[in-house]
Amino acid sequence: MAEITNSTKNKKTLMQEALQQRIEEKEKALRIARKVARETAERRDKQNVRGEKSNIRKGVPRIVLNALQGKSEKSTSKLTGVHQEKARS
């Protein structure tokens, strides 16, 4: 009877360790996904600022600037959606 109890405890301990390891792996993957998303957002913001400054200096018409801003917002939302999906899984 004691052997059954010990083997049950051992199995339970092994299962808990395996679950803990899976949790740690998922947390690590989530940290990496968040880091990549943050770095991508920072690069995108820098690029947007550079683009705005250069277009203003070039004298690009406002209608063209608004079209470029619309494209930028659309691609940003796509990229944000991709990173959110990665963070969920």
Describe what you observe in this structure:
The protein is mainly α. Helices cover 94% and strands 0% of the residues. It is built from 2 helices and no strands. The radius of gyration is 25 Å and the shape is rod-shaped. The chain starts with a helix and ends with a helix. The mean pLDDT is 84.
- Average pLDDT confidence is 84
Described by strand count, sense and barrel closure, the largest sheet is:
none
- Poorly predicted regions are none
Give the distance, in angstroms, between the N- and C-terminal Cα atoms.
Answer: 43 Å
Oligomeric status: single chain
Which secondary-structure class do the elements indicate? mainly alpha
Radius of gyration equals 25 Å
Number of helices: 2
DSSP summary, beta strand count: 0
Shape estimate: rod-shaped
Helical content stands at over 70%
The portion of residues forming beta strands comes to under 5%
Order of SSEs, N→C? HH
Could you provide a short overview of the structure?
With 89 residues, the protein is mainly α. It has helices spanning 2-58, 62-88.
Note the main attributes of this structure.
89 residues; mainly alpha; 0% strand; rod-shaped
Write the layout of secondary structure elements.
Blueprint: H1 2-58, H2 62-88
Helix pairs in contact: 1-2
